[in-house]
Amino acid sequence: MNLNYIALLIVEGEKVVEILPEDVAREDKKWAPSVVVYVVGAIPSIGAMKRFIVAQGSFSAKPVVLYHSDGYFVVRFANEEERDKVLCAGPHYFLKRPVIMKPWLPEFNFKKEILTTIPIWIKLPNLPLNCWNSVVLSKIGSSLGQPLYAEECTTQASRISFARILIEMDVTRSLPKMIKIRDPKGTVLEQQIWYEWKPLYYKKCLQVAQSCDKPKEIPAKRGQGQGQRKEWKPTIMGDKNQEKQT
């Protein structure tokens, strides 16, 4: 691309680079259908991550997978619909390790956001069926963090044992096991919260579910890390059993 000299804004005698909305509108649109992907405790090779993403479903165009030196990936899909399908298909695991996925935002900052505010799938067992709508589920999600999505089975009420929603939560705080709900008759009910994955946050190194050492880079063979939904437990990096798994 060709670059040109552009006169800068002068504020109190200092040069200030002023970026206007129209300056970044095209790039915002380009990166909007993207997700940030982080594998807890490990850094897969870019080839392994490409295979992992492709295995999540069928796409109109092959997703673009880019690696950042801070240890995360940015995956750009052809459109936001395909992005949302992948986000809603979680929780995701790569070689039994939890995978954190977040929609990309212009103000995204990896160290400030992805290690403290994480999308977590929760289950609401025995939630009254008249509460299975976007308003009530949004209110419940808002009591825990930033509600994002309800899964398809919850949206269609095709499975009624529990409702399942994705919420962006601050993992530096304790995660509640129960919330109180007041029904239309004024009765206060205690609603249990089940977490499909409960991340551990280490305040010493400001990391999620891993030691303070740099995550270990692991190559993955084709087909590994797909379709796994097992409960994940943190392990110590360098353990012999773990080395065999990786």
TrEMBL record:
Ranges of residues in domain DUF4283: 29-111
Transmembrane segments: none
Biological source species: Solanum tuberosum (Potato)
Region (Disordered) location: 216-246
Listed Pfam families: DUF4283
Protein name per its UniProtKB record: DUF4283 domain-containing protein
Domain of life: Eukaryota
